[in-house]
Design a protein that fits this description.
Blueprint: H1 4-20, H2 29-34, H3 37-40, E1 43-47, E2 53-57, H4 63-67, E3 73-77, E4 83-87, H5 90-100, E5 108-111, H6 117-126, E6 131-135, H7 138-150, E7 156-159, E8 172-177, H8 186-189, E9 192-202, E10 205-213, E11 216-221, H9 240-244, E12 249-250, H10 263-269, E13 274-279, E14 285-291, E15 297-301, E16 305-309, H11 314-324, E17 335-340, E18 343-348, E19 355-358
Parallel strand pairs: 5-6, 5-8, 6-7, 8-9
Antiparallel strand pairs: 1-2, 3-4, 9-10, 10-11, 11-17, 12-16, 13-14, 14-15, 15-16, 17-18, 18-19
Bound molecules: S-adenosylmethionine (SAM).
The site of S-adenosylmethionine has 25 residues, from strand 4, helix 6 and strand 6.
Length: 362
């Protein structure tokens, strides 16, 4: 007799693949129809109305329906309750896989194995022998390896800093990152060939570049908004204490521009920045805080007073973006990325337009 949960999974999965295929035809849809997402996400965390994380596991009401919806599923939290691994939104995964323009037989390198679901999709489409995926967390690698084997997929999965790549299987025809990056890691470019397509989250967008030579690549950002868990690297927290001792400098840029209108270009100019807001009793934003991994910190009060400390002047960056984009919200797809051995620059509209150099990443 057939197990009813298997039948339910098959039905939901078929519906899920059809839902993903509503907007466009994709050669990846067969893999989405084939690979059971629940094998890779046997449980996930969901925030309740109070913001507390609750674990939802196989067999819990709504578990399978959520697994087969267009939802990012948080699968790991650190000791502070900050998500550290997840299975991304399937529609975004499909968009990124489509952007790779990968064909069976292409060799793919993934930075960010996580649950292994994306590696399973890639193995189904390209063949396990052509897939290499790395995660910095050894426990995740162990779990994913076991789950992939259960699904008859045997890609090479490795533990380590994915930004270093895996030269033994290079050159790669396609490279995908599923952790947020500040730029394309040079080591990965060194393991590409001419024509390799690289798809990677940078800032609040997804860059797609094509390698044109030694350490050289160029391309544009996809129109979709995206936020990926940042690649794990050592970071410093914000230095609000120093700012409390400063008198603010006047600024004409509204504090909230940093959070909405200028959010995407700011994520290119200050990759990996964090932000927070202060609110009054009625819930209105009264101030905005920004900080970057090197400990640079800025706060801006809605009254128009900015304070800054640390190696980088973060509010100066916001002000220069405000003069480059005085009124509107610039569209993601109008931004591009050019990489040379000397550095990486994100630009607006054309390589000669306004541009920001991305920090060197190792
Ligand atoms: C959004 S999850 C990846 C989702 C995954 N592709 C999947 O299908 O489940 C991001 C992953 O990147 C991993 N990660 C973070 N920093 C990394 C690094 N420096 N090298 C490799 N993996 C890293 C995290 O441990 C996390 O599992």
């Amino acid at each position: 007799m057939t197990d009813p949960s298997t039948t339910t999974s098959a039905v939901l999965r078929a519906r899920f693949a059809a839902m993903l295929g509503e907007e466009r035809k994709s050669p990846w849809l067969a893999a989405f129809a084939d690979v059971p997402r629940e094998h890779y996400v046997p449980s996930f965390y969901r925030q309740d109305a109070q913001g507390q994380w609750q674990k939802v596991s196989e067999g819990d009401p709504g578990y399978l329906e959520t697994v087969y919806s267009d939802t990012a599923l948080t699968t790991q939290l650190d000791e502070h309750g900050i998500p550290t691994s997840s299975s991304s939104e399937p529609r975004l995964m499909l968009t990124m896989l489509d952007a790779l323009d990968a064909r069976p037989g292409h060799r793919l390198y993934e930075l960010g194995l996580g649950t292994g679901y994306n590696a399973a999709l890639a193995s189904a489409h390209l063949g396990s022998d052509n897939v290499v995926s790395m995660d910095i967390d050894p426990d995740l690698v162990r779990l994913a390896r076991r789950r992939l084997a259960r699904g008859q997929h045997h890609p090479l999965v490795l533990n380590g800093d994915g930004a270093q790549g895996y030269p033994d299987r290079a050159p790669y025809d396609r490279i995908i990152a599923t952790a947020g990056l500040h730029g394309i890691p040079p080591a990965l470019l060194g393991q590409a060939r001419q024509g390799t397509v690289v798809v990677a989250p940078i800032g609040f967008g997804i860059a797609r570049v094509v390698v044109s030579g030694d350490g050289e690549a160029t391309g544009r950002f996809l129109p979709v908004p995206a936020f990926f868990m940042p690649r794990r690297t050592p970071t410093k927290g914000p230095d609000f204490a120093t700012l409390e001792t400063q008198t603010g400098q006047p600024t004409t840029v509204p504090a909230t521009d940093a959070l909405d209108r200028l959010k995407f270009p700011l994520s290119l100019a200050l990759p990996g920045y964090s932000s927070c807001t202060w609110q009054n009793e009625t819930g209105e934003v009264t101030g905005v805080g920004l900080w970057t991994e090197d400990g640079s910190t800025a706060t801006v009060h809605v009254s128009g007073k900015a304070r800054q400390t640390g190696p980088r002047r973060l509010w100066d960056t916001v002000e220069s973006l405000a003069s480059a984009f005085p009124k509107d919200t610039p569209a993601r797809e109008d931004f591009g990325l050019t990489i040379t051995p000397e550095g990486q620059r994100a630009w607006y509209r054309e390589p000669e337009g306004p541009s920001w150099s991305l920090p060197a990443c190792k």
